[in-house]
Write a structure and sequence with these properties.
The structure is a single chain. The protein has no helices and 15 strands. By secondary structure, the chain is mostly beta strands. Strands 9, 11, 12, 13 and 15 form a five-stranded mixed β-sheet that branches. Strands 2-7-5-4 form a four-stranded mixed β-sheet, with no helix packed on it. A three-stranded mixed β-sheet has the order 3-1-6, with no helix packed on it.
Length: 191
């Protein structure tokens, strides 16, 4: 006859995690042994788990390798990996954005102010505003500085992603004002 020892089947499962969007990467570098067990003092010295999810959506959390303890022989174990999932769900962050005000004395040239300011609430880490503000005035008086569009972006350059869906945005218009020039007329004195 023949004596045969079969390896113990061990399944390592990367942990899953979820959170509401906050602009920061979701990571989870932990795992569980979901099938099997090591014998006695034998076991794992380390396990590497890699995964990251920043924007709304899901991605794999993957075990990419492991190291056995010195007293553990690899041929005694059949080790496999199962992926976890990292999920970021949509946030509902309330912010208020206001078109900036500006004023100047009349000088015959148009007054415009194409900027806006976050006046209430907080943007998630790495997020920034891209605003469209339109308004102009040339003569004495006041005009509305209209905040027509607000986008919240995350990332830079070509990697920038529109994350506006994570925000409840209150838009407020600003005011452009040109004040009249004061002219004092002084009559000549007669001698």
């Amino acid at each position: 006859g023949e004596l045969k020892i079969t390896p113990v089947k061990i399944v390592l499962t990367a942990d899953s995690a979820n959170k509401v969007y906050d602009g920061k990467a979701l990571t989870k570098d932990s795992y569980k042994i979901t099938t099997g067990a090591f014998v006695g003092e034998e076991g794992l010295a380390s396990v590497t788990v890699e995964g990251s999810q920043t924007l709304v959506g899901s991605s794999d959390n993957t075990i990419t390798g492991h190291t056995l303890k010195e007293n553990t022989k690899a041929q005694n174990y059949e080790i496999s990996y199962v992926k976890g999932t990292l999920t970021v769900t949509q946030a509902s962050l309330a912010i208020t954005v206001k078109a900036d005000d500006d004023s100047k004395p009349y000088d015959g040239t148009p007054l415009t102010k194409g900027t806006a300011t976050l006046t209430a609430g907080t943007l998630a880490e790495g997020d920034y505003l891209v605003n469209t503000v339109t308004g102009t005035i040339t003569n004495a008086g006041t005009e509305v500085n209209t905040l027509s569009d607000v986008k919240v972006m995350h990332g830079e350059g070509e990697a920038a992603v529109d994350v506006t869906a994570n925000y409840q945005i209150t838009k407020q218009n600003g005011e452009l004002k040109i004040t009249p020039v004061k002219i004092v007329l002084t009559a000549d004195s007669a001698n």
